[in-house]
Fold these 4 entries.
Entry 1:
Amino acid sequence: MARPPRAGLLALCLLAMVALWTALTGFSHTAPDLDGMEELVWATSLELGYTKHPPLPSWFMHFATQVFGRPVWLPFLMGQLFSALGLWFVWKLGREITTPRRALMATLLVSVTAYFSMRGTIYNHNTAQLWSIAAAIWLFYRALRDQHRRDWIWLGIVSGLAMLTKYSAVILFAAFFLYLLRSGAWRARRTWQGLAWAGLAFVLVVSPHLWWLAQHQFQPLRYADASLQTSGRLAALGTLLAFTLDQLGRLSPMLAVLGVWALWRRRQGDRAPGYAANDAWFAAQSARSASFWADLSPETRQFLLWVGLAPLISTLLVSALLGSRLEASWGSTFFVLFGFYALRGLRGDEGVQLRRILILAAAMHLALALGYAAGRGPLAHWAGHASRSTYPGPALSELALQHWRQHQPGRPLRVVAANTWLGGNIAVHAGPATQVYIDADDAQSPWFAPGSALDCGALVAFSRQGRAAPAAAVQALYDAAPWKGVDTVQWSGPKGVAIDFHWAVLPATPHCLKPAQGQ
């Protein structure tokens, strides 16, 4: 009998996934997605919180930029690294509940879903949370089963990190609570003691951010509340339907792999290479074999169903009852256990099925990565489609630097006053010292000391193409600037749209002679 797969095989698969997606998107894209650019901009400094979200993903990006700078491909790499880490913890859970081969099959199957593959190249708070959600589920399972204090403490720590990534972690905590009620584990004294240790660790991890929230009028929570608002009950039901259909689409690569696997098995049975094609006995044994799901213990199946399905179902129910808005990307962490549900259809010889799933998952990743890179890169450029992946960030940055050098010769460009997207595209190509003064707002740009952002001059930029009108503060700076103009830059080649690049240069103030503050 062949030796069961070990961690080395999974590590090799994950490394290949990260390399494939990072290389193809980095080669084909001239700019990252909006969320990735936002993280590059926020990574300028280490803050205890930001106006829209808790801080942990921006901290990770900050340390990455200290090593790599701010290349366009860095958000793609970061997104894939956190996708791979999430899959590692999915596999760790699988090793606890089933055989090594079946654990690897479940991990490979969920890896092809959009949240670990295509959307795994988008480094945002949803993708960055994949690892901590998967790790928390694994630790929760271990803590309940073994009742070891260290598992409870680590559960509290990882849950705190999940909360520092995105507040939606509370949805998973609600699933844990429901499972405690359903399983009866809440009746055990040791469970309450473990929860106390986990709660203490959790509070210690999140307390600095809680202090920051109190000092900043709970800005991220108000942003989250505003994001849930809709224009009425009918609009909320529309977003609910769109959310559900989007999730089915993002799960479809896994369903496609399972469909091809079923066809493969129907034609060849469970015969490994070298078996005779007319081995009737082997075929009969295969037909009678139970599904891998059926071999799981009832307690394990209950855990997977309650913890795995509760986040999705509760979100849909709450949205339907309250009429709140949903975005498809908010479901990023809801499907980490769905590879295990696929075990319901898998059966037969483990070694044979693992080889097939491995081949099919690799083929799906390759097809998705090639199609995604080509569709959002050269094909979009050829068709003149104005997507963020073809945004002319390098050209806009070069124009901005030309105007700056013309009017402020010898002075480095330190500040770009613009929205996150345009300002980020200029700043990442201008150099590591250039920072974005987001919407000319001190609250959104804590890397500047209040009132100091414009001391040594700034380049003001906005475009009405592809985004809303500039913020009032940016428009006011533009109107007051002594040097200004409008350039035209093609987006996605000759067939694409023309960007109206409004630029202005603000001169340095007398305060620039003083020691730099926040710059």
Entry 2:
Amino acid sequence: MDRATISAEEFVYSARDFLKISDKIHDDWKIIEDTDIHKCYLKKETYIDHEIDQNTVLYKAEYIIFYNLSYGVPSFSFNVWNSSGSLLTLKEIRKMSLISIDEAQFYSVITQQEHPLLHRPYFIMHPCHTETLLAAFKHRSKNIIVTFLGLITPLLKINLPLEYGL
């Protein structure tokens, strides 16, 4: 199978291209660029709703897409807070998934750790399988970040407008 790793430069190019679409459709992603190309990342702060016992609860979410230097792929990290400002637990995050996934599988994909760029705790989608996921799409994708997000949206509650694919 074809390798799906990308260089840091390819990530930055894709991030800037992704941001152009976000700006055009008012999706509120921002790019944070450092002089070190490996510290460029995309960030979005938003609100998400979730139904618990027939009540809709609103959470604040922060999404970060960054370049994983070790794996050579885009990586996704996030935090979600309840209305009192407390960070949701990994168990609560799993209950929000749009697909049914058992604990062991979910915890092998999503872990909480110190963010490699921001140096504070974040939930991070483990990048070990990202290359395999992206391999089938790398040369057919208009933007590897859009493809990556499209593949992970069923696992996490991420709104990815269809305009990104046009």
Entry 3:
Amino acid sequence: MDHSPHPSSPASVAAMAWSGLLVAALVPAAVRLLRRSPLWERISLPAAVALPLLVLLHAWAVLGDAVGLRPPGGALVTEPALLVAAVLFWLPVVAGTRHRLSDPGRCLYLFLAAPLLDLPAVGTVAAGHPAAGLAMIVAMLPVGVTAAAITWFWVNREEREAAAGPDPYPRGGDPVAR
């Protein structure tokens, strides 16, 4: 017997919004607050592994019911798995681990992730549950906003560094004063 809410019910819409906010806003905020934790170094994965892991687990969590891949226990299984994948996904972006991406890498990573993470929500909309799908898409907007912010700060820093020019006294001090 299935006790999950109907995909168009207010409870389902709220669940989709909560799940999206958890992945896109709450997890990165928590990882950022704890960015110097020694745990992150132990569990971090390369971005090339963390991104597909989150994309696939997210698709499974969102579309599992629709394609008959819902695990026994439903959200009690998928949500914790999604939470772990979200932490692993955000580590290369906000934590100081050996797998931390450069600024251009973080921009590319997040700009690539945003539409891939929206695809399951688009599938939900296409399956006739527009409110739930749109709730997920809106809740996942912080991924794109973060990508834009990182890009903005990176470009401005590069511009400031270029405007400052090369260090005229690379060995320290004014050569005329020597």
Entry 4:
Amino acid sequence: MSGDFVATQVGSIREMGRNMVAAPMRDLERMSSAIGHVDLSSGAYGAFGLVGGSLEQAFDVVKRAALAYLTVKRAQASGIHDKAYSTANTYVDGDGNAGRAAADITRT
């Protein structure tokens, strides 16, 4: 195997990781931004005291849950990217180890 072939493989694996994550990450960013801009309020129900307060709390809980969900999904997408880079790095390490092993074999 030539060094160019190894470099191409490693580059392909890294590019695959970037490509797999790019669109989902953009979508997650847009969703997070949209949820951050949503202003849920009880509106007219606020005049009813306890009911209005309960609705406000429920809206806050829903908004926090949505943001927490998106945070988890972002971490999962990031994990895909990290795994691709880790795979590429393992590929390079494996090639280096094989080259060193081959060099040791020819000496003995």
